[in-house]
Amino acid sequence: MRSRSWVFIVLALVASACTSGGSPDPTTPPPSQQPAAEVASLDLYVGAPLRVGVGVFFANNDTVSFGTAHFAFAFTGTAAAPTKPKAGPEATATYVPVPGTPTGTGQGPAVTAPSQARGIYVAENVTFDRAGFWTVTITADVKGRGPLTTVTTFPVAEQPALPAPGQPALPTKNLTIYSKGVPKAAIDSQYTNDGVIPDPELHETTIAQALKRHEPALVVFSTPVYCISRFCGPVTDLVDALSKRYGDRAVFIHIEIYRDFQQQVINQAAADWLYRNGELTEPWLYLIGADGRILDRWSSLWPRAEVAAELEQLPPLK
Question: Which of 20, 117, 156, 234 is 20 to 30 A removed from 180 (C-alpha atoms)?
Fold first, then answer.
């Protein structure tokens, strides 16, 4: 069994358009210049304002980065009853970089190599009014190329499959540096790098303990060494940096995904929160309030400023 997450660098299988005679259409850009997209947000559902993140990329692994893009959503029915697209919400999406990569502040969208910039476009407060399949049309005015457009399809469910805002947090007894008889790498996979559990302040408390003490908690579920999307290490470092700034507002917790990666054994805490229908997704970030209810959650990537703003709204810990 393998965990499933949005993979930032993919091979886009884009075929060249042809004329009826089989010759390439000279008006169609070559595959390397045709953008494709993939929705990075997970567990989308009906009736709540959600964040929707999309990565835009090319067959040669270049990506569209920086600035903003326009998202136009449309409902296309269900597997049993497909329909003609019905227009839905529209939104302006802002570029969110992988922590530690350039933000491109003040720049418009540009085509970049993965070594130059990595990130996704995220639209806030998107509400879907029905379950089924939706498309999102992404349009961006890209430096040196002009307007580029691509479309991708994704599912929306009736209800969230994973713990969601407004629901009570699960009283998980996750592994900590005080856990006995467990592999150190099960506490943090980065132990395999140099034999040290990094960021000990992220591995001192269980969610169950925070709930019992009525303390807010910011919890990151990630596997920094084994992450498929390659987002886990940077976002875990981001949460550690936030813990040093906002340690008086919440308890900060990192939950490693794997107890044994080679045998694909998942830590029970990660399974309780994220394992559904034979699949596990990562990374995730959860903000839990002092009353034990989930205040917010983020998947794949999240902007530091947005998370910091929510932490600042919490009263100081007693």
Answer: 234
Fold agreement (31-156, 184-312): no
Please, which residues bridge with residue 255 across strands?
221
Maximal C-alpha separation, the chain: 75
DSSP string, 175-190: --TT--SS-HHHH-TT
CA distance 256 to 182: 12
In the chain, how many H helices and how many E strands?
6, 17
What are the boundaries of each domain within the chain? Answer: 31-156, 184-312
pLDDT tens for 145-204 read 999 999 999 999 999 999 999 999 999 999 999 999 999 999 999 999 989 999 999 999
Report helix angle 232-246 to 304-312, nearest 10.
30
Q: What are phi and psi of 174, to 5 degrees?
A: -70, 160
Say if residue 235's pLDDT is above 60: yes
Inter-CA distances, 295 with 35, 159, 243, Å: 35, 17, 18
- SS3 track for 16-28: CCECCCCCECCCC
Query: What confidence score (pLDDT) does residue 181 get?
Result: 95
Task: Name the pTM for this structure.
Answer: 0.89
Task: Look up the CATH superfamily of 184-312.
Answer: Glutaredoxin (3.40.30.10)
For tokens 């929160």, the residue is: 273
Q: Is the pLDDT of residue 11 over 50?
A: no
CATH code of the region 31-156: 2.60.40
